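Q: Hi! First time asking for a complex rather than a single chain. Here are the components, and I think there are two in total. Is that enough to go on?
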Amino acid sequence: MARLVLMVSAFVLALASAPAFADGVPAALKQSGLNLMPWPAHVQLHDGRLALTGQFDIAVTGHPGQRVYDAAARLLQHLQQRSGIAFTQHEVATDSGNKQAQLVISVRRPGVLKLGEDESYRLRIDSRHVVLTAEDGLGALHGLQTLQQLLQSDSSGSWFPTVDISDKPRFRWRGLMIDVARHFEPVDVIERNIRGMAAVKLNVLHLHLSDNQGFRIESKVFPELTELGSGGQYYTQAQIRQIIQYADDRGIMVVPEFDLPAHAVGFLVSHPELASAPGPYHLYTRFGGKNPAFDPSNPETYRFLGRFFKEMAGLFPAPWIHIGGDENSGKQWDNNPVIQAYMQPSITSNEALQTQFIQKLAGMIKADGKQIIGWDEVLQPGLEKGAIVQSWRGKDSLYQAAREGHRTILSNGYYLDLLYPASDAYLNDPIPPGTHLKRSVRRNILGGEAEMWSELVRPGTIDSRIWPTAAAIAERLWSPQDLRDVAWMYKRLYVVNLDLEDLGLTQIRGQGVLLRQLAGQHEIQPLQILVDVISPVRGYQRMASGDYTTHSPLASITDAATANPWAAIRFNEWVSRFVKHPDAETEDKIRLQLEGWIANDPALEALIDRSPDLHSIKPLAQSLVTLSKIGLRALDCIDQEQAAPQAWARQTTTDFLQAREPAEATQLRMVDAVEQLVVMALKGDRFGGPEAARDGEKPSVGGRDK
Amino acid sequence: MARLVLMVSAFVLALASAPAFADGVPAALKQSGLNLMPWPAHVQLHDGRLALTGQFDIAVTGHPGQRVYDAAARLLQHLQQRSGIAFTQHEVATDSGNKQAQLVISVRRPGVLKLGEDESYRLRIDSRHVVLTAEDGLGALHGLQTLQQLLQSDSSGSWFPTVDISDKPRFRWRGLMIDVARHFEPVDVIERNIRGMAAVKLNVLHLHLSDNQGFRIESKVFPELTELGSGGQYYTQAQIRQIIQYADDRGIMVVPEFDLPAHAVGFLVSHPELASAPGPYHLYTRFGGKNPAFDPSNPETYRFLGRFFKEMAGLFPAPWIHIGGDENSGKQWDNNPVIQAYMQPSITSNEALQTQFIQKLAGMIKADGKQIIGWDEVLQPGLEKGAIVQSWRGKDSLYQAAREGHRTILSNGYYLDLLYPASDAYLNDPIPPGTHLKRSVRRNILGGEAEMWSELVRPGTIDSRIWPTAAAIAERLWSPQDLRDVAWMYKRLYVVNLDLEDLGLTQIRGQGVLLRQLAGQHEIQPLQILVDVISPVRGYQRMASGDYTTHSPLASITDAATANPWAAIRFNEWVSRFVKHPDAETEDKIRLQLEGWIANDPALEALIDRSPDLHSIKPLAQSLVTLSKIGLRALDCIDQEQAAPQAWARQTTTDFLQAREPAEATQLRMVDAVEQLVVMALKGDRFGGPEAARDGEKPSVGGRDK
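A: Yes, that's all I need. Here is the structure of the assembled complex.
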């Protein structure tokens, strides 16, 4: 056991020695232990340190606004908590213009929560002082987060590296959407996610507040909306104000979405008279299915929505209201003669009717001093130029909207609920290297947004879907375009994930809770080892494979598994390095991991046998041990420079097929890597020894590896 | 590793075979897997099962009140979540008098939140139906909690055992006090603890709302109390109403405490004119020290307190206000000539002055329709008969107060902050077997209260101090007096602890969070193995050994360790059984555990070496491996029926001394057990083989074990 654990904890070290990348970041800097995420625009690391002591104090100068004072006070608290050092200073007073302080924060103006605010900062640390300068308070907030990420500790204590950082965001809109309609999320879930967003410099929280499964915000004008449409699960206006303030304190805007004209059951339960087909309507407990829509021919629809939006516009200070606009099938419209009559003669399609509807909404909302945001489908001829288009269908529509003069946000590729690994979202650039777009068109691409649709999450699991993947998306949207080194990203993400836990996010601890429930005991280590190499099936596979409702327990192994299983990520990285440069050190790591999985198997299978809720994952445990043995045999062949027998390799086909089968909507994520080892073993030799790996060059071996 | 983990998870099985106890509960029932806590007054277990299916439904008859409907709806949710079965029924309607339902809850009246309410229930489960009957809604709530604890699952699915339970509490007052003054606890911390209280049938939440470190509740009459006395950390009146309602929904009363006349800095910061010595006063950041008191000679004191208590009496529906009354040194009174003059001629001591003060308060509070509760010190001649005395100093004062006609509550022995193991509190009976007290005196002993003083806890660690020990106290206060089987209690406590986690309590998951922070990595298993055999130093040792303030981080290994380390509890139980009946099976378990600790050591020490925050606990790791080796050698001697060499045993003295040394305010908790093995080994033989153990009899071995 000792060996296994040692290896496991070598994670950071293991990934740190990944190959160099053409991203302008020197390898030495990548291996320096600076776990910054998002990585700043410019980083210069020096040799020294600034030791953290009880004398650490903070002074603020200029006109930073309350946000910066509060953030500085939080930093004090955090540094104490992490270092265990009690500071003399407990509060950052608003008149603390003490230029002698160890950290001086100098800010010209508070800044405004709006798109395109400066947000830049400069952070210089020498062996005696930290100087943080920023044009506005929002930039200062970002700088304080960077400083917090810079804290290190070793046997000499806690310290900051001496460093010179200047930084600013690449994109203006760095969002996270949380769908609180399909499954409601209480205020504390939202607040802890706001803390997570601030930590990785995301700046827009988009709340999807209504859908077919519920209406989630109190209206004082139309209290029936939540009385009938929420099942008691909604935010009061006091709570929404609290959320907005909490986000604002951390430099984050809150944008509300009310999905219209379809996805509207949450509205129509209490207002069936505004629907395009007769009611009554009941909240959906299932997902998908028919998608009732407002009646765009009914003047009452606009009277109602006008009053409703006026109320919401007064509640949310952000300059936009998201009106959805997606996935309206038009079927109710087709079958309603009054609507058909209304359309004649000039409205020739449902798309045109929807556009007219959206335009009317945009007009009302403009009168309330706001502009609209809508999903892809709102992009129709005649759409108001000020409207922002949020692209969920792909980059074609993103660029099309931008070319047509609309500001746009990329969501496609950032759907957290689909549970693709963080690397996929990380490499999904709104404007990838080599994209040819005019400067004016580029300028219209505001950024992107991570989307947390909530069919299959509840408060206890949602953090583990959002994080840490959203941190990788945050880096994509903040940091320079040429950063695409996945191994280095994962190395930092591993640490950021722990930092996020420290903020109260539950993506790690929640897994333990679920595993203990499933196992019925405190000790879950054998199960944990399995869960660290599996992840949920991706895309819509799980939805397709089960009959889920809003009442489904969501407490199976797939709810405990995550999109980024660290043991699999690490193992795959080792193998991918080993097949390129087969050195003895990496081989040892791979071998030790495979032996560890085999050693774990009896305890794992015994635990599974004792726990009825786990029986269905026994095939995964069995495949893990089978593949581990195959991997070891392949390594033996490679080691002995003997080609593996073709017959044996052919027999493994059944095992690989079996190992790729999902169980309980989860899958093993180290199968390809083991197969790579077998492929390598079939070649019967290794390309070189440790020397070859050390100088980073593949030795010439002629045609042998045909 | 496999062997180790297998053994670890055999926890429940291991303790289930503990020896019989004279508590009237048949051994078979103890081994039945009914993990009820508190154990009911009468339990009859039958052979059958009631299988849980999607058809499970609930009907309510009689006049149960809203509490029961809400609790039934929560039960539905819980059963779905735990079983993974989706029920057809989602809501328990208030007119659901369907007598055909699988669970019929029949209640005569809602019941009132007051001491001495009936609270009894009867629960009968046959293979087709569950019938829960109760006189009042509070009893029904308890019955639903018992039903929830009865849920079992195995390969055949989820089911209830067929059982006949009739149950009622032994004591009327089963409380938990949370000190929110020294460290503030946000609403969600209080709410999750209320859920935990309800799960184990505790019925009084006592909030210690003011002390020298803070004043924690909004007063609309005197808003300066929190403006100046809370550092922004307090409950608004809306929040307190929310807490009271949340508790009321679960059958729990909330009793507020305002500590007077001393412990009063929280008040005096904003009202220095009412103090017995001139101000100004500042909130304490340290604990202990001088204890300023109100001026009892100042008529303004009573005008202020009269108005204040009138406001609080309107806010809290419970019929009592706790006025503290403890630890007034009287020094400020001695040194204030005005107070000295006021005392002349009739008030001859500070005790008499305090009694007069308390009596005046009691009079005011009576005028507001409430009675007072006070700590021990309020028991003075002349104390109003209706006053309840809460005994923190011991049972002498408990019985004295009861004899003098006061109702009393035991707190002594239930101080959770002192971190004694659950077994200590469990065996601390307000009226132990054999106590001679008149019936009328017994009647005055209302029950007891677990006390969570908060010098050394914060929201992230408080649950791990309260739970699961408070569940053992709950059983002491609810269940029959003769239940004193500690091994069986621990067996059930282990499961209850998991159930409590399921309610959102953080005592298990919080430990992982802290260990990951300390280790700086996700993988903490080697450290976890150490933490499972250590616990914090007990009593006031930690306070004495450090310079703690309200700003101290409280994030060291001792904050992660708990009073009930399961691996040590299990190990100690094995050894204690083994030295009485040395059988091969128990020897194997002990041996395997010792080998496991040795095998873990290299990984543990490597992890400690990498983590500066952990360096100080290296001696514990070293002692664990040293003692494990000693234990194994002792076992070898016992196994070979060869007396261990005296010289060797003498040499171990240094090791035992070293192993008992605290490090980072934690101590190993398996040292005595290993020493017992050495003592046994010195005798050079075993008393008998597995046969001896099997028939539960110690064979006659003459004088050999002198």
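A: The mean pLDDT of chain B is 92. Let me know if you'd like any chain examined more closely.
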